[in-house]
């Protein structure tokens, strides 16, 4: 059995006790796979040490972010009070996660998480992150349009009127709440078919990692139409192609709110970095959209300037909302 460091066990305890608010008498499920076995074991041990009834299940790694787990795992997820999913591919945007949340489970997904990320980011002040994230969400929900520009060449306009903003605050203590751990982002699904402009991903890209060359993505009528930028861009195209046109949907606009997160190449952490934004393509059903596809890929934009309607809320990577 892999040795679990004191630091990783401490971070796992914070996740279960503080972020998920697991209480005596509740049942905890940990869903993992071989690449993230050590994280799964640490969460299992932390839950056991807290006196909780805990089950650890290991499945084969999925092929893409958003691919469903085995049906037996999906059924288990609906039966527990608290579900944590440290897996190599994300289960966040799956029908299985949505069904578990609808059944009342509190779900945290930890796609691609590393021990270093756990130790660094689980020690953040999640009360402060939660307050900041909710303030950004409140402002997003009052806007009709979001526009992002950045020195790398990004200039995109995304209509967002009427869309609910989601606060991935790191505190998932109420029935049915869900999100990533570690976390810290405010996000929503832009209206389908309406986003226009250019996104230049210059930080990292889900499925690709830290970029050697920026990826330029032209967006027309809500879809990525042209993708250019060398080998990294070619890798993104290869990831999208098996899933068809829906995988090119502008699915998410998010603003990072975690002041402890740093750019590492693991999108779980990268998209939470305060002072960055991310735009994702693919599935948006989890966010109140209409597109269900077994792919959801986030691209990070650094040093963004963001307008919500005619109010500037971020300037050159500096968040201007409280």
Written overview of the protein:
This protein is α+β, with helices and mostly antiparallel strands. It folds into 2 domains: 6-121, Thermophilic metalloprotease-like; 126-319, no CATH class. The chain is built from 8 helices and 20 strands. The strands form 4 sheets. It has an 8-stranded antiparallel sheet with strand order 14-13-10-6-5-18-19-20, with helices on one face. Strands 2-1-3-4-8 form a 5-stranded parallel sheet, with helices on both faces. The chain has a 5-stranded antiparallel sheet with strand order 7-9-15-16-17. Helix 1 (6-19) crosses helix 2 (37-49), helix 1 crosses helix 5 and helix 3 (71-77) runs parallel beside helix 4. The model has no long low-confidence stretch (mean pLDDT 96).
């Amino acid at each position: 059995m892999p040795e679990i460091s004191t630091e990783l066990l401490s971070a796992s305890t914070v996740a279960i006790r503080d972020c998920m608010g697991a209480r005596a008498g509740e049942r905890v499920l940990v869903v993992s796979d071989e690449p993230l076995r050590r994280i799964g074991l640490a969460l299992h041990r932390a839950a056991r040490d807290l006196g909780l009834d805990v089950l650890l299940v290991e499945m084969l790694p999925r092929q893409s972010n958003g691919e469903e787990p085995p049906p037996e795992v999906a059924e288990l997820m609906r039966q527990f009070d608290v579900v944590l999913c440290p897996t190599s591919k994300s289960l966040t945007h799956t029908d299985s996660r949505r069904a578990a949340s609808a059944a009342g489970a509190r779900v945290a997904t930890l796609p691609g998480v590393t021990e270093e990320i756990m130790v660094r980011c689980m020690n953040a002040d999640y009360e402060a992150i939660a307050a900041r994230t909710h303030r950004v969400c409140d402002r997003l929900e009052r806007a009709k349009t979001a526009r992002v520009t950045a020195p790398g060449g990004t200039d995109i306009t995304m209509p967002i009127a009427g869309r609910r903003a989601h606060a991935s605050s790191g505190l998932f203590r109420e029935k049915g709440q869900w999100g990533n751990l570690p976390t810290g982002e405010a996000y929503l699904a832009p209206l389908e078919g309406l986003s226009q402009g250019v996104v230049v991903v210059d930080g990292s890209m889900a499925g690709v990692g830290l970029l050697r060359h920026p990826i330029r993505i032209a967006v027309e009528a809500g879809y990525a139409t042209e993708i250019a930028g060398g080998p990294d861009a070619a890798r993104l195209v290869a990831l999208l192609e098996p899933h068809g046109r829906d995988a090119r949907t502008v699915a998410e606009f998010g603003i990072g709110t975690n002041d402890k997160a740093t750019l590492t190449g693991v999108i779980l952490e990268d998209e939470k970095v305060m002072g960055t934004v991310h735009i994702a393509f693919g599935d948006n059903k989890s966010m109140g959209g209409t597109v269900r596809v077994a792919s959801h890929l986030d691209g990070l934009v650094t040093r963004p300037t963001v307008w919500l309607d005619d109010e500037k809320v971020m300037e050159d990577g500096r968040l201007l909302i409280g």
